[in-house]
Amino acid sequence: MFDILSLIHNKKTLSQSGWYSFNAVCCQHRGHNADKRKRGGILLGDNSWQYHCFNCGFKAGFFLGKSITKNTRLLLGYIGIDNEQINRWNLESLQHKDLLSFIKVRKEKKRVKFVEFEIDEGELLDNNNPQHKKYIDYLNKRGLQYNSYPFLVTPEQEGRQNNRIIIPFTFEGKVVGRTSRFLDDRKPKYINEQQSGYVFGYDLQKPEYSVCILCEGIFDAISIDGCALTHNTINNDQAEILSRLNKKIIFVPDMDTTGLSTCDRALELGYDVSIPNWEIGVKDINDAVVKYGKLATLLSILQTSTSSKILVEMRRKAVVKRL
Questions:
Q1: By three-state DSSP, how is residue 30 classified?
Q2: pTM for the full model?
């Protein structure tokens, strides 16, 4: 595009505030005396500039990606640019519109960060500690080994605090939160201390994995070495975190109406969706691992993975019919 400073041949001085001052080029064209006191000024910006005459008050400006305004056309005419050239510059500016919008979005895209979190209670599960037996038995029922994750327990505490498993939330090797899973049937079953945008299981993903299995529940993720949303939505911050993996994402919903509704958002983000043909009563990945085993569950997910909206809708309707 055109360089406005090079088009104005009057001698210029640069002020500390960033304005280029010179004898204004507009005054005599607007019925005023010619400026001889350097009352014209131009301030340059990113892909833009502003012109201001402090003698006659004329203003003009230019923003790459937008049409050349009436006053800017007048200013360019004052310095001898013909309409044909101005029209060419106008067309060129408009051709930059989509590119600049893309650059703006890329610049404004937020990179999610997490504050380190301190867990000041709990001891690691130990197979040799008789006080830990009930916790290990609970994990075994869910198809998990006591050492499949750094689970913490508080057997010396009272009440419900004695009857929970603490699951640290890690990100890039640092603890950034936690959840407590209570072993009784009372609600709430989980109490989360979770930062916005967090995706559980990010640290479980290994470089050799070509895909990331994304699900809702924490135990689902641990069962399959995947990632968990910890709820039934995918927010923008979580999408940004998942994009850092540079892997194919396969979303596996819980087999209920709420979980299945999240498939639309997953497809919108460019993820594959997998709705395996599991038996009635197998409502999520962890249930499937308990019933079929880890390898068979993983194969069933990969075999039914698709990005087709039509296939997803067909499989979703089939599951809803059975609910």
A1: helix
A2: 0.67
